[in-house]
Amino acid sequence: MDRCEEKAIHVEKVKQVVSRLPEQDTLQGVADLFKALSDPGRVRIVLALAEAELCVCDLAVVCNLSDSAVSHQLRILRNLKIVRNRREGKIMFYRLDDHHVSALLHQSLEHVIE
Amino acid sequence: MDRCEEKAIHVEKVKQVVSRLPEQDTLQGVADLFKALSDPGRVRIVLALAEAELCVCDLAVVCNLSDSAVSHQLRILRNLKIVRNRREGKIMFYRLDDHHVSALLHQSLEHVIE
DNA sequence: TGGACATATGAACAATCATTCATATATTTG
DNA sequence: CAAATATATGAATGATTGTTCATATGTCCA
Fold first, then answer.
1. What are the pLDDT digits (tens) for A65-100?
2. Chain C bases closer than 7 angstroms to a protein Cβ
3. Most buried of A1, A20, A73, B35 (most Cβ within 10 A)?
4. Chain B contacts of A29, Cβ < 8 Å?
5. Which nucleotides of D are covered by protein (CB under 7 A)?
6. What percent of chain B has pLDDT over 70?
7. For residue A2, pLDDT beyond 70
8. Cα–Cα dist A10/B54, whole Å
9. Which 8-state DSSP code applies to residue A21?
10. In this structure, is the CB of residue B91 within 7 Å of any atom belonging to strand D?
């Protein structure tokens, strides 16, 4: 069953690495967060919200997408606690929920532009 | 044509935000980077490589995946300059290409665990 | 209350992606 | 050179995703 015993290359290193990895739930959470930011449209939304609080209609213009498409994507971002919303009359304003996300985006920009 | 003039909500804010957004290529690059990390298997690979340099076979054990699956995923990570490889005889060792990525992962862990 | 506006949601379809299996390449050893 | 090992790659298929369209909800104002 254990492949280490058949073709084992670096058993000790593997054991040590495995022992230091976070739990599966945490890995999944990280992957979900990254997945939320894996679409250029959503990246644009998040970067826009890093600049200013905006409503759905504003974001549709900024992203050149339909209101509906933006709304669908905002739900994804909302579910992952990446954005928060606030109603003011008919209008729903969105902003970033968390400063981590902005930092994350800017760090990744460094990697991409480098 | 310009939706701003029909249902315009916050024209000035929109203009300012748009002017501050990176180019589409950059947004796409960021999205690609995040997409590469949007799979728990690849997150596991990257976190493992943040701990030690490992070969494909080691990673297959660590991630409980086939060698082939790991190899496919490593190619994705390689194409995005997230990992580098080095051959030593028959064995191909992988390590992180860039300290940004490790920082990115740890920042996202904070968001998730919070 | 009814109509207009802003946003949200459900379903469906097209496009994209991950995994698997078979096969190919590269390296070492006999 | 042939066999064995480690890794890589191509093609196919099953799953996931984003967008669209139609419709629903919530809010304001006449």
1. 999 999 999 999 999 999 999 999 999 999 999 888
2. 5-11, 17-23, 26-28
3. A73
4. 112-113
5. 5-11, 17-23, 26-28
6. 93
7. no
8. 8
9. S
10. yes
Could you give the CA distance from residue A18 to residue B78 in angstroms, rounded to a whole number? 22
Q: Which two tokens stand for residue B49?
A: 């490589």
Rounded to whole angstroms, the Cα distance separating A74 from A97 reads 12
pLDDT at A5: 39
Number of CB atoms found within 10 A of residue A33's CB: 24
Model's pTM, two decimal places? 0.88
| CA gap A61, A77 in Å, rounded | 18
Match 């030690």 to its residue by tokens.
B52
- The CB-based long-range contact list for B12-18 (8 Å cut-off, 24+ gap) reads B13/A52, B13/A54, B13/A58, B14/A54, B14/A58, B14/A61, B14/A62, B16/A51, B16/A52, B17/A48, B17/A51, B17/A52, B17/A54, B17/A58, B17/A62, B18/A48, B18/A62
Name the average pLDDT for chain A: 89
Measure in Å the smallest separation between the Cα of A80 and chain B Cα atoms: 9
